[in-house]
Design goal:
The structure is a single chain. The protein is α+β, with helices and mostly antiparallel strands. The chain has three helices and four strands. The chain has a four-stranded antiparallel sheet. The longest helix has 9 residues.
Length: 87
């Protein structure tokens, strides 16, 4: 099982600053653009209809709450959806 966060970035914010280096190291989360996600087999995500930047974050279920709390507290995050994927 894998948890995938589909994150819409607020305009004017850096999409590469969603998680700190510490959070990335602690969770081994993988942050990807849509193109990077497609290259590794995640094909379901679509570009945002309003043209906003999207990032996908893949993480083990045990770290999903940790990542979710970080996203909820981040001003760069406009919104996000959580998907549970079988591996």
């Amino acid at each position: 099982m894998l948890t995938l966060f589909e994150v819409v970035i607020a305009r004017g914010h850096d999409p590469d600053a969603l998680l700190s280096q510490e959070a990335l190291a602690d969770t081994q989360a993988q942050v990807m653009t849509l193109d990077e996600a497609k290259a590794v087999g995640f094909s379901g995500a679509q570009p945002d209809a309003k043209g906003r930047e999207i990032r996908l974050i893949a993480v083990a279920p045990r770290d999903a709450q940790y990542v979710q709390r970080r996203l909820e507290a981040n001003d760069a995050v406009r919104s996000f959806r959580v998907h549970e994927l079988a591996t």
